[in-house]
Amino acid sequence: MKRIYEFVCNCGQRTEALTDYETASIQCTCGGLAHRVISAPSVNLEGWSGDFPSSWLKFDQKHREKLSAERKANS
User: Which pTM does this prediction carry?
Assistant: First the structure.
């Protein structure tokens, strides 16, 4: 399975490449050898709330379904 990894060359150039898990180094554009490094994953958050997109909608839907089921049970 291929994944996107970040690689850093000895000259300091950073690049991302879609490679296999076992790949530890690739050919850099400068001609040198770039080694795989650990980097922070990119995460998409909503700007106004800081929540993950659609997480509030899922929570709200489950909450409403739970309330509806409790009201039917209590009737």
Answer: 0.53
